[in-house]
Amino acid sequence: MQAELLHEARRQAEICNACRYCEGYCAVFPALHRERAFADGDLTQLANLCHNCRGCYYACQYTAPHEFDLNLPRALAEVRQASWEDFAWPAPLARAFQRNGLMIALAAAIGFAVLFWAARTFLPAGGDGFYAVMAHGTMIAIFLPAFLLPLASLAIGLRRYWRATGGGDIRLSDVAAAFGSAAKLRNLTGGHGDGCNFEDRDRFSHARRHMHQAVMYGFLLCFAATSVATLMHYALDMPAPYGFWSLPKLLGVSGGVLLTLGCAGMVALKLRADRNLGAPSAWGGEIGFVLLLGFVALSGLLLYVLGQTGLMPALLVAHLGAVLAFFLLTPFTKMAHGFYRLAALAREAANQRAVRMTGGETGP
Fold this sequence. Notes:
This protein is mainly alpha-helical and 364 residues long. The chain is built from 13 helices and no strands. The protein has one domain. This is Tricarballylate utilization 4Fe-4S protein TcuB. Keywords: Membrane, Transmembrane, Transmembrane helix.
């Protein structure tokens, strides 16, 4: 199947390389136009550069019913999805999630919540707030491995990606350029800065970029809240619970609001968009991931609002179950695409630097 996807992506890339109408649309086309032939690694790199904004499809004169039948967003999305499944470790889990993502996310979150609820009976708790339901040491013993194991899995996947796309050296300036592009989501602004056509071929919009930014920065704020709380607990001897005006709470609540709104917006956009312009087989996995992440954020906010009521224990185990499912499934969900896309952007920055050093031309 992977060979068929690469063959079709190669066919379409060669046609696009001859046409060059979409050269300024995003980072894909300058990279594509630098090549004369496309090895499998080149196509994998192009696929992970693609943000699936779909502007090129709606501008293309060679889409169906033309005999060329171009659908580059779908071709690259399918190669991209297949590459994540192949690079992931262990790969069978990635394939299973992409085919049945919604059910796996739901089953994992509910299953872990039930286990947390059962643990309350057998494991002693103590302390204030959430620690009256589940001991701090128990949470650390569960979530520390659940955080580290996915990082190890992602590291293996990224190493495989880097080798498959050609290896080579990379500089700090290339990494900085990649983070700068990701921070602004530059490749979702469209060729003229008007936005993309993700949800409607006749309307340019920045909605998808804004929803992605809400999710990205919301997640980073929540991660910062957890990091600050860890520092306060262990280094400053200031254990939780913390008041609203404390830094962990301010970061966490603002991040939770952004995450909730961003995930809701992403689901709405995906429901309106044409599934045939992405990887249709992965649609359920993508929706499952977004819903899981959105529930993590929403349940966290509800915990803050209802943390002093009798609903707190049930909300806590539901939230912890969703968080644990999210962490353990991260290497096999759409969450992994952020890491691969950063690697692709860093490689593209390195490629552009190499072209400049040799006196050649490169795209914008």
